[in-house]
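ok so I'm stuck.
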Amino acid sequence: MDLTTNYVFDAAHRIAGHPGKCAWLHGHTYNLELTVSAPSLNPLGMVMDFDDLRDVVKKAVLDLWDHATLLAADDPLGPAIRAVQHQAPDRVVLLEGGQPTAEVLTREAWTRLERQLPAGITLERVAIRETPSCGSAISRPLT
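replied:
not stuck anymore, here's the structure
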């Protein structure tokens, strides 16, 4: 049985080296959707409690990325923004996995979420949308 939830977060990013407007620092209201599964329902008839899943998502992704600036680890804007925003240096997130594209953010979210889920719960799908019409998704391969 599957359980699917949606979350919204706001963040700034840029794609350094992009030939168009994505090279400039800008922001999005991102939509994060994830699906988890369990082989059977728990004694209360749930895959997992929505509040417990929200707590996992909050700790793994939202607390880090919401109202943050997401940049590639080697982006020269990282240190500059941290210096100006010295009261909240943790709001500048430098991603070791590459540019903060929808694809990289989706992969990073998958990795972070998969580590935080309780035993018996499997991450099946993660999707991140930058806009209502543009996004990326990763799904567990069917076996």
